[in-house]
Design a protein that fits this description.
Elements: E1 14-15, H1 26-40, H2 52-63, E2 64-65, E3 72-75, H3 78-88, E4 94-98, H4 103-110, E5 116-120, E6 133-139, H5 151-161, E7 164-168, E8 178-179, E9 185-189, E10 201-205, H6 207-210, H7 249-265, H8 267-287, E11 299-302, H9 309-314, E12 317-318, E13 320-322, E14 325-329, H10 336-346
Parallel strand pairs: 1-12, 2-8, 4-5, 4-6, 6-7, 7-9
Antiparallel strand pairs: 3-10, 9-10, 11-14, 13-14
Amino acid sequence: MSSLAPHDFSPETTYLNTASFGLPPARATAALQEATTTWAAGRGGPMIHDHLVPQLRAGFARLLDGATADDIALGANVAGMIAPVSQALPPGAEVLLAEGEFSSVSMPFVHRGDLAVRFVPLERLAAEVRPETALVVVSVVQSADGRVTDMAVLREATRANGARLLADATQAASWLPLRFADADYWVGATFKWLIGARSVTFFAVGPEAGGHIRPVGPGWYAAADAWAELYNPIALPATARRFDATPDWFGVVAAVSGLELIEELTVEKIGAHNLELAESFRNGLIERGYHPVPGDSAIVAVPGAGAEADRLEQAGVIASARNGGLRFAFHLYNDATDIDRALEALGTQ
């Protein structure tokens, strides 16, 4: 299977590490170079790219079927965008998470200090929701091993028990279809599968769920009229924009470029491409005596093989050592030759 975008990327390695950091498309590097050249020449600072923010907000909304631009806030990192949800919970509230959840998702709750945080196996998450559960927090796709959460089933369980649901789409957005109605709150970093920037994260919340939370330390950019209220703060907007952090405008330039390419290719085509490659790689691993984590995911994890990461890198194959295992990630710039190179570098167990 060929790459979906062969002319937009130019990796010099067999890059199978999107779950850690995505590769920028050529249009993003060109746009960033132009932006920094303009800045260095004194012909306009980063703020001249603020007109791209509404475009980016609308693009994120289109990733979440059923969302609108008014439901989207922009920030710098996942934990910071989760903070309003964490801080709104009353002392003693039960928060349910999956065992092995990525720490940026769990730490805002674990380290608040006065919440009843409960970890259960991912496959039992929906069954463990109970009437005393205030909030369920989960990554749509698990960072460590690529397991995919059945969001519809989990949503049904939270509704039946009166709990709210926060979903991290960082490892899912761009290749897995997402529905806004499947969670009360959504968060997602753009520097992985959205081939964006390390400094840009989205937070999505509708009016109903948003009414239960308040911004934590809002800055000037979150004001109802940011430029008019620079020295005289008056009001926060009624939309999700009240949760905005001041953007890194260079990051916005990169994120817009990545999102444009994803929309041109479509989530459906990217997902089919990624999953076909991952399944082929999984089968190849099994033939060579390895035991990858089963499932239908663009992430392929091989438990117990983490020590092979350095040897793979020496062979020009870039993967991640995670949780004692190896983690491979297949995205739109990968093709069947990447599978062959990775399997050859691993050899037979």
